[in-house]
Design a protein that fits this description.
heterodimer, A: mainly alpha, ABC transporter involved in vitamin B12 uptake, BtuC, two-stranded antiparallel sheet, 4 strands, B: alpha/beta, Rossmann fold
Chain lengths: 333, 391
């Protein structure tokens, strides 16, 4: 009893949830479990890429860029634009995989550029303002993008029609069927995450980003062009969001002007759960949130899905505000 | 520094939590009675152009249906004005941002205090009707919904103020249940609502109907903003013959149908009136319930031509609502004077004949504001994507 008291209410809830899932797996079998795992990893890959943008920007500016989810939405529409321009899913004018590569390239470049423009006009002047100012500005940019998309693209859902594009084929592992686009999405996300990790660890700009994140003023004094580093961070984070938007369209089909709202919040949750400011944390957080969403959808009623995901956000804020892989900020005195 | 970072994260989390709360507040009751000085009893002279309000979710998560409703209302007004009938009409728009019910109340209050507005077409959602009723009543405004189907809305407590041009869940639900049980002879049915009042009401009605006849029914729920249905699909048992999805967004149904096929499940989809959209929901072999509308009617074709080939059927009843509103105002203006009370009385007695109604049925109301004699047909989606009436 004393031990139970020691782990507290969040711990007790966590244990209850784990027992529930173990019971459900026992009852419903491993096929469902692995199917949900694949679903969770697909969704989690998208969240992880969104979370990376949140985390990178927060790491350098201590800014929660709430417009990030809408950059992801714009990225999805850019990918759709390329798809439509090149004949659509039913009659593409180029090879399917070339088309998909072009969708990624245009979306990533376009979203990256959009991120740089947002930073330049909505955040740069507020860099030394009270912290609440850029946060409000971010919300303003979010609404601006959302409503611009509503005016530009209309309220109608757009369909990537991926099944027409690549077919229903996939692989069977035992009784578990994995659609090939899911494999492609997870593999692409992993490749982008590895590329980002290598970029940050091994390039000059990556070093500058780490230095700026550690201490912006000191980095500037050491000759780092902080403005350029921040703009680059926005470019990379937004490009990843653009890629996530295309992946979402390819894997799940439907895109619309409001899609960035919830996805952005889940990306933010993933970043916080993983440890905001930490790149590996964002990846782990994204995959975790995706899996939690898939498992709660699969084992409990769908009504519980978002409740559980955002419940995790609250629990982490209370129990471990630094997230899974985050570190405590050094207190300057 | 640590403290600042903590505060930022906390503020961010609160903003996120608040945003989620607002976005998912569709079932949360928001109180508030109109406090505006409503011109309920004011008499005014009729002008050459009169205004009606249109309350619909023009922006926000449900804008894809709200814009359809607005477009159909605009179509009805434009057709009226071109016909030479007098007075002419214009629309005052109110964006209810469904599922944010607080916005629907704000719109109701705005209309209440707007002396130009004599009657309102809308709002879209049953919860919006329920929560904004007090504001409409205080201002003496009649409001006619083109999509709120919760049965209890016309239990008599909103008599004389609220009207709807769509049959309620007690009409559609049994029609669907009867077809699934009687014609399709399904023994195991899976019902998934989209967490909105409209959807939950229909799901409950159909579920009760089928259970009472010995059909095994499983229930699940999916957010209206979801696009990934794979996890919900994964748990649908293999012996399920029909998956009933009383949703509002046809694009979601299309994605669901594709993902169902990709998962190798052979169950048939059965949608509701909210999914009647041949331009989007095209899963061949699926069923759908809708009004006995003639999809080749002149007005439907004209509307589709003006809107990129999309007939936007979900919004069509709002054209009927706008039609009732305009007729009621026209009648009130016969003597050159108008009051909201007069318009309310006229709405209750207005009739649009079957031949002039876009819905394929006569529009007139019961004493409590329900559509009198409402009926639903059952359609099946053909391999070429067209909808064929089969029941």
């Amino acid at each position: 009893m004393r031990r139970l008291r020691g782990i507290g209410i969040p711990g007790a809830i966590l244990i209850a949830v784990v027992i529930f899932f173990v019971w459900e797996i026992h009852n419903k079998g491993w096929t469902l479990f692995f199917t949900l795992l694949v679903n969770g990893l697909t969704l989690g890959s998208v969240y992880a890429l969104i979370a990376l943008g949140y985390s990178m920007v927060y790491g350098i500016l201590k800014l929660l860029n709430f417009a990030h989810g809408d950059v992801y939405m714009i990225g999805a529409f850019m990918g759709f634009g390329v798809l439509s321009l090149l004949g659509g899913a039913l009659s593409p004018s180029v090879n399917v995989w070339v088309l998909i590569a072009l969708m990624f390239a245009v979306s990533m470049l376009g979203s990256g550029g959009l991120g740089v423009v947002i930073e330049r006009f909505a955040y740069r002047r507020l860099r030394d303002a009270p912290r609440i100012a850029p946060l409000i500005s971010a919300l303003g940019v979010s609404f601006l993008l959302q409503n611009s998309a509503l005016i530009l693209f209309g309220s109608r859902y757009r369909d990537y029609n991926t099944f027409d594009l690549v077919g229903f084929g996939g692989i069977h592992i035992g009784d578990v069927f994995i659609w090939k686009m899911r494999i492609f999405v997870v593999a692409s996300a992993v490749a982008l995450m590895i590329a980002l990790t290598l970029f940050v660890a091994r390039t000059q700009l990556g070093k500058a980003m780490r230095a700026t994140s550690f201490d912006r003023e000191a980095a500037a004094m050491m000759g780092v062009n902080v403005d350029r580093v921040i703009a680059s961070t926005f470019f990379i984070g937004s490009a990843l969001a653009g890629a996530a938007g295309v992946m979402f369209g390819l894997a799940f089909g439907q895109i619309f002007h409001f899609m960035g709202f919830l996805a952005g919040l889940k990306g933010f949750t993933a970043a916080v759960v993983g440890g905001i400011g930490s790149i590996p944390g964002a990846m782990v957080g994204g995959l975790l949130v995706g899996c939690v969403e898939a498992f709660s959808q699969g084992y409990a009623n769908g009504n519980w899905s978002d409740l559980i995901v955002f419940g995790i956000l609250i629990v982490f804020m209370l129990v471990r505000p630094t997230g899974l892989l985050g570190t405590r900020a050094i207190q300057k005195v | 520094m640590k403290k600042t970072a903590g505060i930022i994260l906390l503020v961010g989390s609160l903003v996120a939590a608040l945003a989620v709360a607002v976005a998912t507040a569709s079932t949360g009751r928001v109180g508030g009675v109109a406090s505006t000085a409503a011109p309920a009893a004011e008499t005014a002279s009729c002008g050459k152009t009169m205004a009606i309000g249109v309350a619909a979710p023009i922006t926000g998560a449900a804008s894809s249906i709200g814009v359809q409703q607005l477009h159909w209302a605009q179509f009805a007004v434009s057709k009226w004005n071109k016909s030479g009938a007098r007075p002419k009409f214009k629309i005052v728009q109110g964006d209810t941002q469904l599922p944010n019910v607080a916005e629907a109340i704000k719109v109701a209050k705005t209309f209440a205090s707007d002396k130009r507005v004599w009657v309102v077409a809308g709002p879209a959602g049953s919860q919006e009707v329920q929560d904004s009723f007090a504001s409409y009543k205080a201002a003496g405004l009649a409001f006619i919904s083109g999509s709120a189907t919760r049965t209890s809305l016309t239990d008599g407590s909103r008599k004389g103020y609220f009207f709807r041009v769509v049959p309620n869940d007690d009409v559609q639900g049994p029609t669907v249940g009867k077809y699934i049980n009687g014609t399709l002879k399904a023994k195991h049915v899976y019902i998934i609502d989209d967490q909105e009042t409209y959807s939950q009401g229909l799901a409950t009605t159909v579920s009760a109907y089928l259970k009472a006849r010995g059909v095994t029914v499983d229930r699940d729920s999916i957010s209206q903003q979801a696009s990934d249905f794979s996890s919900a699909i994964a748990k649908i048992p293999g012996d399920v013959q029909v998956v009933y999805i009383p949703w509002q967004l046809s694009a979601q149904a299309q994605a669901f149908g594709q993902q169902l096929k990709a998962a190798g499940k052979s169950a048939k989809l059965f949608g509701s009136d909210g999914l009647f959209d041949p331009s989007t929901f095209k899963i061949a072999g699926s069923y759908d319930s809708f009004f006995p509308v003639d999809t080749k009617a002149k007005d439907v074709v004209a509307y589709a031509k003006a809107h990129g080939g999309n007939a936007d059927f979900f919004g069509a009843p709002t054209a009927a609502a706008a039609g009732v509103a305009m007729l009621a105002v026209q009648k009130a203006c016969a003597d050159g004077k108008i009051t909201r009370a007069e318009v309310r009385k006229n709405v209750a007695t207005t009739t649009i004949t079957k031949s002039k109604s876009i819905l394929g049925l006569t529009v007139h109301f019961t004493a409590n504001g329900d559509l009198k004699g409402g009926a639903f047909g059952v359609y099946q989606i053909q391999t070429n994507g067209s909808y064929k009436r089969i029941g």
